[in-house]
Amino acid sequence: MTGYALELAGIRRHFPVRDALGRPKGAVRAVDGVSLRVAPGEVLAIVGESGCGKSTLGRLALRLLEPDEGNVQVLGQEWTALSPRALRAARRDAQMIFQDPFASLDPRMTVAAAIEEPLILHTRLSRAERLKRVHELLARVGLRPETAVRYPHEFSGGQRQRIAIARAIASNPRIVIGDEPVSALDVSVQAQVLNLLMDLIREMGLAFILISHDLGVVRHVADRVAVMYLGRIVEEGPAAGIFAAPAHPYTRALLAAVPGQGAAEAEPIRGEMPSPIAPPPGCRFHTRCPFAVARCSAETPELLGTTHKVACHLAGELPPAAPFAEAHTGGERLSRLAAHFHREEA
Amino acid sequence: MLSVDRLSVTFQTARGPLRAVDDVSFTLEPGRTVALVGESGCGKSVTSLAIMGLLPGSARIGGRLSFEGRDLLALSAVERRKLSGGTLAMVFQEPMTSLNPAFTAGEQVAEALRVHEGLSAEAAMKRAVEMLDRVRIPDPARRAAQYPHQLSGGMRQRVMIAMALVCKPRLLIADEPTTALDVTVQAQILSLLAELKRETGTAILLVTHDLGVVADHADEVVVMYAGRVAETAPVGALFARPEHPYAIGLMGAAPRFATPGGRLASIAGTVPDLMSPPPGCRFAPRCPFGDDRCAEQPPMAPLAAGHQVACWVAPIA
């Protein structure tokens, strides 16, 4: 046993691209050699912009997609080699929550049936015991027991996400991956779901991987952060360290772009992410990097370091970056007044 | 310049009349940005559509909308069309639904110039390419000849902004202009809007749910809840000292503005059904600060210069 809940080593997945006649003409290098570890009770955020490969990585981590190369270990068990049958059984330990619960909940299944399904698959509980557990789970995610007989379309987005969470934790998993789990929700509903997720992570000692483009949410919940750009991790480390001193030029640009830090004095980074079909050679960020030197277009930098790792030839030589500006402008008064809303929750 | 005075919008639905906007008032001056903030269904987008004259004919509009002294609600369809796209322009969240897939990016930007400034096709296209360059579309001449589906999301949003700005509108309504975009592209688009505002003195009505965008880009803020205005304030005052309990809850719920690592404010319950809103203050059923007075609708009351709040309990210590 390694002690890690989840370990990914050298994960690679390319999607072939064909031309109009079906002839292969290249591949989208969605995930291109990613290694990560997550400890029990730890929240690891994978951040990056559309097309960086973060969602694909989440699916690969649970073998919802098959990696071309690399290994997945869950609770010390090698998942890469599991037969489909063994994999189905092993899935009790690792579950996923998606952005759009409509896509993950069967519209013809009642809430009770949706939450009971993993219990049928993964436990030997009797029908009566299962129903009791369904009611416990509903209560745990803040839904009334009467909701059990209703269908997904009868619920709001926030309630549907609670149902998806109840289903995900039904089999008592050790690992949960949330792919943009609160991105589609209004701020006040998002807060309720985030509070619930953080409580569950703490109570169940879950290893949680949060895949998100929202750095405000990430700053709030993550212990560690991995930043992806064009299929690779460019920086990884403790959240506090990354937000205080982002090292990679892409991380710096990403953090600087988050609104709420005062109208940007600095010119925002130019251009857009290149196509993952033909990523730039060397460091994939060199085409947009304000610091790039000749070496950056020739040689791919490795992810180096002990706790705070960076994949940049110039790491350590760059001028210090501005830390992420926190925006809690309402100060002590806002915390004190906002706390009145917590009492309402209980 | 723009004055919205006691605006109300009612839709006829199968279940009966639904008042989506109720008694909304604010003003906007040249070179300023007013942000309309709130969550889904609060009436912010309906307010902006009313100003643009884009509501369906079945919507009943009450109150007054005046723009540079003209009564917008009294304009004929022809007068309206002359205004829209020229003096008054709009940018939406999803450029794919507002760009025409059958015309090139350049043709769509040039169209406004031909209609509003009477330019020839050739002169209009030349100006269109210049405008695409101004919104930082690389290789603008080539891009001008491409169709919307050949452009990335960020590029399409720039084309729409170019269309909106090419006739130098005096008022730009931007409804969630960057919500669908990645954060670095969002930063590029917002800095572009800020630059154009500085240069041309365009007034901007920014409709958004993103408090971070509001903090950086608005001068004044109108916080809406369930079709009504909860609080209006200069941006600094709102973020330093929100007074309406809904504004306090909203800021306490936003990870960027709440205490780092702490519990986020969780506003109990859900937004009221506008078919049968609660009597009195619409936030009262979810409000931890309320008392007996809240059974009656609170008036907008001034707290300081430009800072008004519709709450019996405010100011809260």
Question: Could you walk me through the main structural features you see in this protein, from its secondary elements to its overall organization?
Answer:
The complex is a heterodimer of chains A (346) and B (317). Chain A has 346 residues and is of the alpha/beta class. Chain A has helices at residues 54-61, 84-90, 101-104, 111-122, 127-140, 157-169, 187-204, 215-221, 239-244, 249-256, 294-298, 331-345, and strands at 6-18, 24-38, 43-47, 69-74, 77-78, 94-97, 175-179, 207-212, 224-229, 232-238, 309-310. In chain A, the strands form 2 sheets. In chain A, strands 6-7-8-3-9-10-11 form a 7-stranded mixed beta sheet, with helices on both faces. The longest helix of chain A has 18 residues, at 187-204. Chain B has 317 residues and is of the alpha/beta class. Chain B is 33% helix and 24% strand. Chain B contains 11 helices and 12 strands. Chain B has helices at 44-52, 77-83, 95-98, 105-117, 121-134, 140-144, 153-165, 183-200, 211-217, 235-240, 245-253; strands at residues 2-13, 16-28, 33-37, 60-67, 70-71, 88-91, 171-175, 203-208, 220-225, 228-234, 301-304, 307-309. In chain B, the strands form 2 sheets. An 8-stranded mixed beta sheet of chain B has the order 6-7-8-3-9-10-12-11, with helices on both faces. In chain B, helix 4 crosses helix 5. The interface between A and B is large, with 55 and 56 residues.
Work out the helicity level of chain B: 25-40%
CATH-defined topology of the largest domain in chain B: Rossmann fold
The level-1 CATH class of the largest domain in chain B: Alpha Beta
For the CA atoms, what is the radius of gyration of chain A? 21 Å
Q: How many beta-strand runs of chain B?
A: 12
Distance between the termini of chain A: 39 Å
Biggest sheet architecture of chain A: 7 strands, mixed
Work out the count of structural domains of chain B. 2
Give the termini distance of chain B in whole angstroms.
Answer: 35 Å
Q: Helix tally of chain A? A: 12
Helical/strand content category of chain A: alpha/beta
User: What is the name of the CATH superfamily of the largest domain in chain B?
Assistant: P-loop containing nucleotide triphosphate hydrolases
- Tally of alpha and pi helices of chain B: 11
